[in-house]
Amino acid sequence: MPQPLLTDLTAAEPGLPRILHGLARRAPLNFARRAAEVAWELGSAALLDRLMPLRNALHEVSPGRAAPSGKALALYLHWSPSGAISAMVRAQIAGWRQGGFDVVFITNAAQRPPAPDWDAVGAETVLRIHRANVGRDFGGWRAGATLALERFGAPDELLLANDSVLGPIRPMAPLLAAWRGGGEGVFGMTESLAGGPHLQSYALLARGTSAVAQLVDHLSAFGDSRSKWRLVQQGELGLARRLRAAGVREAALFGYARLLAEVDDATRVSLGPRFAEAGALQRYPLNPSHHFWRVLLERMEFPYLKTELVRRNPGRLPGVGEWAALVPPAEAALIRAHLEIMG
Fold it and tell me: pTM to 2 decimals?
């Protein structure tokens, strides 16, 4: 079974603007409908953003009880409908702490987390922030970086993480070791080619002075918008463009080319007739953490499931309901409890 291995991001652009990425999964009529939806979202969001600018409010900033080391900083972004912090999320935070990170907990939930949850998170964190859900993940990370760097200074390592993934279902130590063995740069789990090669942002680690500075600058320059499409363009894709321009190395533990090498004929056929020929997956890049979730889990020692995949399965992918059969019982119980909190 392939082990985690850092591979540099694909050098060549795939030739598909992000809005055309929908051609990979939709019939022409459905694609045209989706393109119209994106255009409407962009236009209406731009108008609202101009008429009613978003307010980036901080509701509460509290110290945590963990002693900071000052060497490695993690910005962990949380959201839930009620503000509750699940045991799975607390386990993720504890895991990053065990990995050597000073964890800053940021919640974008509308309601303040219940007092027992807020207190429990304090045991594993150096700072806790409750803010308005403006700018989604990158907006939260921006707020966390601003406050944390003022208090603790610039770290040697800066991690961005969030609760958009379920798990981990496998030990994280080998993955952290592989990241840290890569030297300086910005490293992630999975590489996406949609809109241009970039790292998916649920777990990103910057190492070294230049990489950390570029990531901090990117967060500082991030602009808020009501448009999810625009936020993705600014966030993940904008970061990739910035890092390439600065000559900072970008690498993934589960690179797209390595992943495609593990995709069998049955998986391609299950994605639709367009993908029966192997080269189609390169021409029409798909979301690796959604469309190849089972390949990642069964063949590549991947530690996570995407929350949106399990909750909503937006691509109507086959077999997603069988996820628990691939997860150890203890972790499956944590995941189920987390999903109940998420609604």
Answer: 0.91
